[in-house]
Amino acid sequence: SRHDYPTTTASPTWNPTTASPTDYPTTASPTVSPAPTLAPTPKPTDHHAGGCHPAYSAGASYAAGQQVSATATAETPTTTPCTCSEASCPSNPGQTTGCTKTTTVMTSETYNYQCVDSSNPNWHYCSSSGYKPTGEYGSLAWVKGTQCSGVITPVDPLAGIANPPGCPEDFVAGTEYEPDAKVSTPIAGYSGPAKQIFICETEPMNQFCGKSGYGPGTGQYWDQAWTKGTLCSGSVSPTASPSWDAAMMIDGCPGAWAMGNSIYEPGDRVSKNGIVFECSDGSPHCSSEGYEPDVDAETDYYWKLVWTVVGHCTGTIAPTGSPTFDQATVIGCPDEWVKGTTYEEDDLAAVTVSSTPLRKIAYKCKKWPFSGHCKDISPAEEFGGHLGWTKVGGCAGTVSPTAAPSFDALALVGGCPDNYSTTAEYEAGDRVAFQAAAGTAGSMALAAGWRFIVYECKGWPSTSYCSQDAYKPGSQYDDMAWTVKGHCDGTLSPTVAPTAYVNADCPAFGTTHPECTYEANTDAHVTTIPQCKYNKEVEVTGVACTCGDSGCPTPSPTSTTCTKTVTRISCPAVNNWSSGVSYVEGDVVRVGANMYTCKEWPYYFNCNKAAYTPTTDPDGLWKQAWTESGTCPSSC
């Protein structure tokens, strides 16, 4: 399958609703690195001392800015006079006056709270019971308001909005939404008729609108696929039947609508009950089930997405010959599309839409990454065909036969570079040779029958695939990582070999690397430190300490052997990015001698994804997860 590219199949790996305080160290209060440039969450402005919002409920789903109330029980010590002779009254021997006793009074207080706004990523924790408003970690996700009592009168979200629009259909997870499709969602904490409208983004981001993690207003990544619209109430009002004038009269009615696969092209017309409809530009659904144009329909209005009312008609159109197609578009019909065939970008395929008369439509495979869909989804498929294919137009006959392809058709690009190696690390622009045919032993020249094809590693985002065996030149998926540049003969003229960065071992300790306290205290007595390294805090348990000393936990007064946990600085090597390493905030990788540091929460979740691997591309996707952090030293 060619669906391995990250832009269409990557799923979010972080689920804030399952997070719990156990993600934090048990010996200290949790610390969450703030997202850069986030404005502080303001204090709630609509908390009312006179009433409480609905009570917080563990397990419920809460959105950014939603308000709740929560009650906490506090213990208050109270000192009162007592009779010295009573058993419950503490007193000194012989004391007869001035005795007091302390009792604990339990009091309950209820406050309003507001989930932090969407500019603070901690709002994802509001639905986690480990971050309840009154809990130990509640202040990370909730802003405490004023003390309250009773029940607050809900504020009507439609107050002050004159004539709100009707609501489109509710959002349904898993639905494939078209660009600019509108949905509505309930308003958190509100049970009235008002809803919130969201608008699906344009291509290609509309492909995420129905996926898990992108639910409008609630998903972790919703703002990448949806735009928040206005409030609405009720439903979309049905439109009245159109009224006609003489200018909209069409001479003769075209045929009735028919269901099928890509029967209609942009500009085709049908009629029903004397009304003429025209297929919209670029729509693949004009002949799809559920899109039959009908102005009298009471419930289904999907046809309006793909059909336009252009007038009304009487009678019938005079018969004409079989439809013809613009031969300037496609000279002849390419081969029929066959599932499983490997199609590359700009390849053509035909689909038969009518057998009598014979009618075919030609399609062109889109450029990468969308070309990955071309072998699996037919161009005429109602749901998904447009992902990999672009309609070219009608075609007739066959493509004129051409001679069998010859190797000489590839341009000669000079001498041959090194053959592809599964152990090498390739960057954008690197070239390799692929042996297409073996010749006479003793010579590697073209004249001796040897055939080598030159491939060049593509730029971002394909570069990371060049070093993976599944995408090597000559393989089924090589076009996702490599571009064929031509054929070669002989060898390249010798050049000064590039010097790869070697991360050598350097002598440690003494006067060098005093900061590497972790390595200095290991039992293995480390004597070398990597030339290119970075400093990383690690916690070391079981470090011996003197019982009773400050900072040394003593299990009991008689303990003679005590240990503690200390923080030391480790100096790990800065290596190339690897899919086998789990990166966290502060980890460092390199590309050549250039170093990159994994960003803080929440960006570090992407540091482990291949699509965000650091590259030399100054505008690459990697900048969302990594920060440039200098170059490795050239010597110890």
TrEMBL record:
<feature type="region of interest" description="Disordered">
    <location>
        <begin position="1"/>
        <end position="50"/>
    </location>
</feature>
<dbReference type="InterPro" id="IPR051024">
    <property type="entry name" value="GlcNAc_Chitin_IntDeg"/>
</dbReference>
<protein>
    <recommendedName>
        <fullName>Chitin-binding type-3 domain-containing protein</fullName>
    </recommendedName>
</protein>
<feature type="compositionally biased region" description="Low complexity">
    <location>
        <begin position="1"/>
        <end position="36"/>
    </location>
</feature>
